[in-house]
Here is the input.
Amino acid sequence: KGILEVTRRYAKKFSGEFGGSGERSDGVGAPPKTATPVQGPVGYENIMDVCVDLEKLVDVIWVSGTPSLQVQYLLSIALLLTSYLTSFPASPRPTFWLLRKLDIAFASLLRGENVDTGETLGGFAATSRKMSITEMVRLKSLVERTRVVVVEVMGRGERLEESEDDGEGNEDGDMEEDQEVVGRWEMEIARVYELTIVELGESLGNSGADGP
Here is the structure.
């Protein structure tokens, strides 16, 4: 239900409404009649709102403690994020925050333990199974695609303002601050799925599925 709602909101992006105008035609030449508007969430206006909704889904799925479900749902969520990024002005802060959370989740599932705390994940205590080869290949393809998309989106110059200027800064100070921010986001671009890449390299390498 959560993923379906996100896709519906995305389908209505920039419309300011959900469910259309409520107008319909009863036949050729018949005047349009107004139907009862469909109630529901409004369409997305920016990637920030997309990230907020997707992060909620990640949090719910993560606490389920069922690796087989976690892998499939997280792959779906990560694919949605990658697919939607190009449709909105860049919003680095929420985008990189969600990508970092997904990176930790995938790397942890590949390793079978939380990469931050070292604790064994629920569902892995009684089995050595982590991701299947098919899942790892899908994840590798998604990671590669996402890194390309992030470079494209962050490099096109169109960005959503994430903080308001207090109006008291000087021009030189603002330029220095802008340069620091740009440098920070460039570092974040390079770090997209960095933990997952390492774990995939080890897992696929050990399985012999990574090729020559």
Notes: Residues 18-36 have pLDDT under 50 and may be disordered. The beta strands are 23-24, 33-34. The chain has seven helices and two strands. The longest strand covers residues 23-24.
